Amino acid sequence: MTLPTPTPPIRQFDRTALRVDLQAAGLALGNATLVRIFKREQRLEVWMRGGDALFVRFRDYAICKYSGTLGPKLAEGDLQAPEGFYRVGLGQLNPRSRHHLAFNLGFPNAHDRALGRTGSALMVHGGCSSVGCYAMGDAQIDEIYAIVEAALRAGQTAVDVHAFPFVLGDDALAAMADHNWAGFWANLKQGYDLFEQSRVPPRLGTCNGDYRFGRDVDGEACVEIGAWRA
C-alpha cells in the first residue's frame, strides 16, 4: 500500500528583528507592498508604502538562483523564469511549500495567455534551486513572504511583482537594441518608468499583445491584469 505524502507543516519564524528594521525605516508589517525582480542583477527589491502614500525601497535581497536566460517565459517546460507584470493575492501564498515558503507569480497572466504562453507553478520561493522560478535563500524568503502576507491580510487586494530582465535604464536598453526581445523590453520599460517617476505602482492591463498602463487599460479590447480569484 502506498502511504500518502505527509503535508509539510506551516513554517514559523521570529519576525522581531524584521519589525525593528521596518520601524527604523518608518514602515510596518501590513503596509502596501511592491516587489521588483531584476534577472541580470540577481536582485529582488521590496518596496513599501510610506506615510506620504509613496512607495519607498525597504530592502534588497540577492536572488540565489533563477533558471533560463534573459527574455520571457514562453512554454511549459522551457525552464525559463518569467518576465512581466504579475499580481499576487492571498490564494497564491504557499506556507507549506517544499521550498520552505513560496508565492505563485500567477503565470500565465492575462498578457501571457493572450500570446499563447503556457506554464505553471512559477514561484518566488526558498530552497535555492530553480526550474523556472526565482529562488531565494530561506532567511530571505522568510522576510519577503512575511511582508507580502501581512500586506494582503491588511487589505491590499494584490501585491504587484514586476519582473524585469535587467534595470531598464535608457543606456541599458539601448545597449540591447539588437536583441530579439528588445521590443518586449521597451514595452516593460513603460511600466518601469511610470513607477520610477511616481513611486506608485501603475494600473496594469494588456491590449493587442502589449502591456498597457494607467488610463490606457480602459482602451477597447484591453484586459486588466489581476491576481488569482479566491
Automatic annotation (TrEMBL):
<dbReference type="GO" id="GO:0016740">
    <property type="term" value="F:transferase activity"/>
</dbReference>
<keyword id="KW-0808">Transferase</keyword>
<feature type="active site" description="Proton donor/acceptor">
    <location>
        <position position="125"/>
    </location>
</feature>
<feature type="active site" description="Nucleophile">
    <location>
        <position position="133"/>
    </location>
</feature>
<dbReference type="GO" id="GO:0008360">
    <property type="term" value="P:regulation of cell shape"/>
</dbReference>
<dbReference type="Pfam" id="PF03734">
    <property type="entry name" value="YkuD"/>
</dbReference>
<keyword id="KW-0961">Cell wall biogenesis/degradation</keyword>
<dbReference type="InterPro" id="IPR038063">
    <property type="entry name" value="Transpep_catalytic_dom"/>
</dbReference>
<keyword id="KW-0573">Peptidoglycan synthesis</keyword>
<comment type="pathway">
    <text>Cell wall biogenesis; peptidoglycan biosynthesis.</text>
</comment>
<keyword id="KW-0133">Cell shape</keyword>
<comment type="similarity">
    <text>Belongs to the YkuD family.</text>
</comment>
<protein>
    <recommendedName>
        <fullName>L,D-TPase catalytic domain-containing protein</fullName>
    </recommendedName>
</protein>
<dbReference type="GO" id="GO:0004180">
    <property type="term" value="F:carboxypeptidase activity"/>
</dbReference>
<dbReference type="InterPro" id="IPR005490">
    <property type="entry name" value="LD_TPept_cat_dom"/>
</dbReference>
<dbReference type="GO" id="GO:0071555">
    <property type="term" value="P:cell wall organization"/>
</dbReference>
<dbReference type="GO" id="GO:0009252">
    <property type="term" value="P:peptidoglycan biosynthetic process"/>
</dbReference>
<feature type="domain" description="L,D-TPase catalytic">
    <location>
        <begin position="33"/>
        <end position="162"/>
    </location>
</feature>
